[in-house]
Every structure is written in structure tokens, then in C-alpha cells.
Amino acid sequence: MSTPRATEVRVYNRPMSTWWWTRRRTYFVFVMRELSSIFVAWFVGFLLAFVYSVGRSEAAYQDFLDWAATPWVVVINVIAAAFLALHVVTWFSLTPQAMDVRIGGQKAPAAAIIASQYVGLAVVSAFVLWLVTR
Amino acid sequence: MSRPRVEPLVWLMFSGGGVMAAVFLPVLVFMFAFAFPLEWISPPDHDHLSAVVGHPLTLLFLLGMFVVLLVHSAHRFRYTLYDGLQIKAKRTVAVLCYGTAAVGAITTVVVLLSAA
Prior knowledge:
The complex is a heterodimer. By secondary structure, chain A is mainly α. Helix content of chain A is 71%, strand content 3%. Chain A has one domain (20-133): Up-down Bundle (3 helical TM bundles of succinate and fumarate reductases). Chain B has one domain: 3 helical TM bundles of succinate and fumarate reductases (Up-down Bundle). In chain B, helix 4 (56-84) runs antiparallel to helix 5. The chains are: A mainly alpha, B mainly alpha. Chain A: InterPro entries: Fumarate_red_C (IPR003510), SQR/QFR_C/D (IPR034804). Chain A: The chain crosses the membrane at residues 27-52, 72-92, 112-132.
């Protein structure tokens, strides 16, 4: 039981609809971007399942590939990949606002920062692809 | 002395995870979720993958990447529940989100060590 108090402070919370973000396109994209977090977690689980199968045996690895090719897994992966793409695009676009990059004392233009990240993505992708498939 | 706050560390890991998700995850997803299972590219043989996955550098890299991805995901989902779905049970949401990430991190260690 709480002890009685002389004064009770009551804060008024303006009620807000659970569906507030469906009213505007920008709000909707914001919430979709935040929901990409679920799909990032899904891919962590998916990749861990892959690593686990490779660690077990060749047959387990083949089973993983077969499982990953079943229609429902492919459907989930397609949806998840769409959310991941949204994350990539929004993340790169936000970087110039989050980071103050200076080259020779001059503020680097936002477009250059965004473009350099796509170059980074391409280089990393090419390297990982080479490492795995060589 | 003020109590050390965990929030800055979580934001740092959120950012790190965001970068990893944007830069490293797309190619991994392309290969392992689509190209190999659907045979757009013939899957690498088991011996090669086993050598790549079992290499200590790969293990350390994957461990770091998976952990920051999990924290990134938990942190962002926490705010999705607060702001998006207007859930105000803040402590419960935080414990559930970071708790799940912690369980995921432990699972990651176990799985990676099993493949090493």
C-alpha cells in the first residue's frame, strides 16, 4: 500500500491513436523504417541457422539450402529484404545529418557523403562475394 | 558521483549495428537467402564454407556483427513500440527488447563456437 500524500499530482496525457502513423505518408515511411528492426533480427537468426548447419555437417548444410528454398521462407525473405532495402536507403540518407564530415576544413556536401557510402557498400559486397564463392 | 548511464553505449551500438546492417547485410542476404538456395549462383561446397566460417577472424567478425545487429534491432524496436504503437509500459518494453537481444547474443556465441 502506498502512503497517503497531501497533494496528488495528476498529469494529463493527451490520448493518441495507435494508428496515428497511417494518416501521412512521411509518418508511414517512418514507422516502416523503424519496423525494419524486426527483419534485421530475422536475418541474424537466418544467418545463424546457416552457420550452425555448416558447422554440423555437409548434409545439414544441404538441408539448410533446401529449407531456405521452401516457398514460405522465400516469401518471408523477400519481405524482409524489402525492409532491409528501406533501412539501407534511409540510413545512408541520414548520415550527412548525423555526421559532420570535413575535408580540408570544408563541410563535405551531403550528396558526396551519401554517394561514398554506396561505393563502400559496393566494395564490401564485392569482397564478401569473392570470399564466399572463390 | 553520478551513476554511469548505459544509454550512450546503447546508442553507439545502435549506430554501429545500423552501419553493419546497411553495408554487410545486403550481400549476405543476397547470397544466403536467395542466390544459393534458389541456385542463381551454384552454392559453394561445404569444405570451403566450413573453412571460411571456422576461421578465427570470421568468427570474431561475425560475433561483433551479430551482437551489434541484435542491439540495433532491439533498440529500434523498443522505440517503435513507444512511439509507433504508443505503448507506455516503458520498463517492461525495455527489459523485453534488450533481454531478447541478450539471449540472441548468447545464442550467437554458442552457435559460432560450435562451427569453429
